[in-house]
Structure formats: structure tokens, C-alpha cells
Write a structure and sequence with these properties.
mainly alpha, two-stranded antiparallel sheet
């Protein structure tokens, strides 16, 4: 226990002091910057947390560089963006029945009717209180569960089991994301295939480069993700706007704000908030399920348990509490598989992994939470698990993010009414300019620019086929790790081609993966028969 407290102290120290022991506030200031920017991004319909994260990462690396000291400020800003966007998305959902982010879609069910009844201020304050409470609850679970889970995994799973676990995670994610699981699986496999372009792990040659010298070092990660997530959405938005060039409707009128939320009302919400946050935390700990499922399950549960179920959908604060507490709790819980296994569960986790892989020598996974004894060697400094120090530094930044969300978040949300009314005609060209500039600067000029444009077309086609881009992005991100694990396990087994089948745990995981694939195929056939 004493060793754990030592690492926690070192993690907190790393946030407020640099490598030379000088006091600095840059990581904390970047968390605040991320919170405020995320709230603004979330409040603009059509944008979202992944948008903000995708744009911010190349800008942050250009500003702070690629040293170990740059990692905490960059992660602080990304964590702030993740938290702020979830909070800000509720504002246009409540005021104009237009969710700023997909997370806030169900918030419109009761938030907008509350605004129409002259209770807009109360609805916004309810969403803010429930959202930050749910986020704080899931973060506490993360701080406790991630180290325990990681230590257990490290003791039980070896290379074959970890390989089978990644395969199971990808199959599970494809099965639960979107309305077309089999298409999602194919999208994940396509992402894995494209990530293998470039130099082989053995370094003896290149593969899948089509003879293009620029692909010899692989596909630039940042530009590829920018293309799939951001530029493809810009293409979709431009196409939708061109189809909707009919008589332009007038901007919606801001409803009457009404009275504020009282503290007695906040206290009465606490049982509902804790129930919804618990649902969101459990759902969020499972990779790929996402906020929509958590919000839907929480909303249905709240309605069934309510003494006045008929009021749901007509403007009851209970509905706002149920959706906002649940979808905000997903964000912290989604980092449990990231911190403990290195497996992302949502887009925010993808960008945190991209950041740690791009900057410094920190990496997520079970080895992060090895409590190595701290020793001071004369002339050689301290011997410790630096990854664990960084992990507790990240936890400290998340706590700071919650504090800023409690204080500055509520203050900023009062001024978001005009942001929510900015038309896409203005927003999308700016997003396009920033994205292309980031791809050009981040990944080697025209090589990064060309990669972003190619992946924009890929992302556009995936979206138009009504397939979630999440399996594609996560497959693209995890394929190198999976290949490395399989190569290592194959070598350790002495070249046994059946090495995955020698471990009972790996066999069980592969069996579950096979079951999910068969289930996806059967679901696809049933859907095709029902539509014919």
C-alpha cells in the first residue's frame, strides 16, 4: 500500500513539476483549454468530441513536440476535449431540439419540451449536473478498476491469450456497433489490412505498397484518422447541404430561459444519477458499445422505475438526468480496457492511444500497472515504473478536468446559445481548412495530405454504406499490436503453427469470436430475407 501511495504522489508531482523539478502549470492549463474548447465544439451541431480530438492532436504535437514532457500537456488537452464535448452537446439538444453530439440525441426527448415550457435554464443546469456527476463517478471506478484488472490480466494472460483477446475484442466491437454487424466486421478487417502497409516487423522488406515509395514507412496514422473521421464527415455534410438548398428556414428562436435549478432539486436527483451512472459505467467498460446504448438503457430503466412514467417525453428532468448521467459515465469507463489492456473502446480512447504512441515512450497495457519497487541508485537516478507514474499523472489530469467541468463548465454553458446556431456553411469550410493543414504539417507534406484525402473517400464510402467507422479505425490501430503479439507467441512456441490452440483460455476466446462471427452472418441473412 505504501508503494502505491508513492506512485500516486509521483504521478501528481509530474503534473505540477517538470523533469527539472521546476513548478509548471502547463498540463493543468491545457486541461482547462480542452474543457472550454470541448464545450464549444459539443455545442455546434454537426461537430463532436472525435472531431475536436482529431483536429487537436496534430496541432498539439506541432506545438509541444514529441518529448516525454510533451505527453502530459497533450493528454490533458485531449482529456478536457473529451469531457467538455459531452457536456456541451446537451445545449443545442435542449434549446433547439438539435443535439450537438450523438451523445446528446436522447436528451432532446425531455430537454427540448422543458425548454418549450419555459424551463430551459433548469434543463441545461440539470444536464450539466448529471453529466459531470456521471463522469466523476465513472472516473472513480476507472481509478480503482483499471489497476486491479491490469494486474489480474498480466498474471493470467500470456502472448497467445493476449492475441486471442484482441481478436475477441474486434469481433465483439463489430457485433455491437451499428446496425450492420457483418459490415462492421468487414470494415474492421479492411482497417487491419491497410495498417499492414509498409515495412514488415522483421524489417526485411515492404508489403502492400503497390510500388509507391511513399508508403514504404507505412500509412501515416494521424492523416489516416483525420481522413476517415473528419474529412469524410465534411464530404457527407457538403453533400447533404447541396441536397437541402431549398428555401432556407429561419434560425430557431431561443426559448425563454426560466428559473435556475435549486440545490434541493439537485439532491433529489442523486439516486437517479447514481443509477444511471452505474449503467453507463458498466456499458462503457465493454469496448465498442458506446453512449447511445447506455443512454437508451438508462432512459428505459428510469421510465420503468419512475412513479410518473407518463411524463417521460413530455419534459421531465428525470429523462434528462437518465441520458446525461449515463452517456457521460461511458467516457471514463471506456478507458478501463484502454489502460489495462491497450484496447480502445471508443473514438476518444483511439486518440489517447494515438497520442501516447506518437509522443514519448509511454504505452497502455497490463504492464503499466506493475508496482516496481522504487530505488535510488547513486549516479543513475531513480529506478521505477515510469509508465505507472504517467498513468497516475493521467488520472490526476482527469480529476482536474472534473473540477474544471464543475466550475468553468457551468459558467461557459450559459454563453453557448449563439454557438449552437452557427450554420454548417460556415463551420465546414473552416474544419476542412484546419484538417488539411494539420495533415500537411503533421505527416510529411503532400504525403500526409494525399493520405488524408484517400482515407476521406474510404470514410465517405463506409458512412454511405451505413457502417460505423469505429471498427475500421480500431482495426487499423490494433493490427500492428496483434501482429507483434502473434509473432512473439509463434516464436516462443518454437514455431508451432497451432500455438493459439495450446492455451485453454485462448481457445475459449477464439470460440467466442467464432460464435460472434456466425451470429453476425446469421443476422445478416435474416435481415436480407426480411427486406426481400
Amino acid at each position: 500500500m505504501e508503494l502505491a501511495f508513492q506512485y500516486i504522489g509521483l504521478g501528481i508531482h509530474s503534473v505540477f513539476f517538470d523533469a527539472d523539478g521546476q513548478f509548471w502549470l502547463m498540463p493543468v492549463l491545457m486541461v482547462l483549454t480542452g474543457i472550454i474548447s470541448g464545450i464549444f465544439f459539443g455545442a455546434i451541431p454537426g461537430l463532436s468530441g472525435p472531431f475536436a480530438l482529431a483536429l487537436a492532436l496534430p496541432v498539439l504535437t506541432s506545438v509541444f513536440g514529441y518529448s516525454n514532457e510533451a505527453l502530459l500537456p497533450v493528454l490533458g488537452c485531449l482529456v478536457g476535449l473529451m469531457k467538455g464535448a459531452t457536456v456541451g452537446g446537451a445545449v443545442p439538444a435542449i434549446l433547439f431540439n438539435t443535439p450537438g453530439t450523438p451523445d446528446a440525441f436522447l436528451t432532446t426527448a425531455d430537454g427540448y419540451p422543458m425548454a418549450q415550457k419555459g424551463q430551459a435554464r433548469k434543463a441545461i443546469q440539470t444536464s450539466h449536473f448529471a453529466s459531470v456527476m456521471g463522469d466523476s463517478f465513472s472516473d472513480i471506478v476507472l481509478f480503482v478498476a483499471a489497476p486491479v484488472f491490469a494486474v489480474a490480466v498480466e498474471r493470467v494472460l500470456d502472448l497467445p491469450e493476449k492475441s486471442a483477446l484482441i481478436i475477441l475484442s474486434l469481433c465483439f466491437m463489430a457485433a455491437v456497433v451499428g446496425n450492420a454487424p457483418l459490415k462492421g466486421l468487414l470494415g474492421g478487417l479492411l482497417g487491419m489490412l491497410l495498417s499492414l502497409v509498409g515495412t514488415t516487423l522483421s524489417g526485411n522488406g515492404v508489403r502492400l505498397t503497390l510500388g509507391l515509395d511513399g508508403l514504404g514507412s507505412g500509412v501515416p496514422l494521424t492523416s489516416a484518422v483525420l481522413g476517415v473521421l473528419v474529412l469524410s464527415e465534411v464530404l457527407i455534410s457538403v453533400e447533404d447541404m447541396s441536397r437541402a438548398r431549398k428555401a432556407r428556414e429561419s434560425l430557431p428562436q431561443t426559448p425563454e430561459m426560466g428559473p435556475p435549478l435549486k440545490w434541493a432539486e439537485r439532491l433529489r436527483m442523486m439516486p437517479a444519477i447514481l443509477r444511471s451512472a452505474s449503467i453507463g459505467t458498466v456499458i462503457g467498460a465493454l469496448p465498442g458499445i458506446g453512449t447511445t446504448t447506455a443512454a437508451t438503457l438508462s432512459y428505459d430503466t428510469a421510465k420503468r422505475l419512475s412513479k410518473k412514467p407518463d411524463e417521460f417525453g413530455k419534459g421531465t428532468p428525470e429523462g434528462v438526468v437518465a441520458t446525461e448521467a449515463a452517456n457521460s459515465a461511458v467516457s471514463g469507463a471506456n478507458l478501463i480496457p484502454v489502460m489495462s489492456l491497450g484496447i480502445p473502446g471508443n473514438f476518444a480512447a483511439v486518440f489517447l492511444i494515438l497520442a501516447v504512441e506518437t509522443i514519448g515512450d509511454f504505452s497502455f497495457g497490463p504492464s503499466v500497472f506493475k508496482f516496481t519497487e522504487i530505488k535510488e541508485i547513486d549516479g543513475y537516478g531513480m529506478i521505477m515504473n515510469k509508465d505507472l507514474v504517467m498513468a497516475f499523472g493521467l488520472f490526476t489530469l482527469m480529476v482536474m478536468g472534473n473540477i474544471f467541468n464543475w466550475t468553468f463548465g457551468g459558467f461557459v454553458m450559459r454563453f453557448l446559445v449563439h454557438m449552437a446556431r452557427i450554420p454548417k456553411d460556415i463551420v465546414m469550410p473552416l474544419i476542412l481548412l484546419v484538417s488539411l493543414t494539420a495533415a500537411y504539417v503533421q505527416d510529411g507534406g503532400y504525403r500526409g495530405l494525399g493520405t488524408a484525402l484517400v482515407f476521406a473517400v474510404i470514410g465517405y464510402l463506409i458512412r454511405r454504406l451505413q457502417v460505423s467507422t469505429l471498427p475500421f479505425v480500431i482495426g487499423f490501430l490494433l493490427a500492428p499490436a496483434l501482429e507483434q503479439l502473434i509473432r512473439g507467441a509463434f516464436t516462443a512456441s518454437g514455431g508451432d503453427a497451432l500455438f493459439l490452440l495450446k492455451s485453454p483460455i485462448a481457445v475459449i476466446m477464439l470460440g467466442l469470436s467464432g460464435f460472434l462471427i456466425v451470429r453476425m452472418v446469421l443476422q445478416g441473412r435474416q435481415k436480407a430475407v426480411s427486406q426481400s
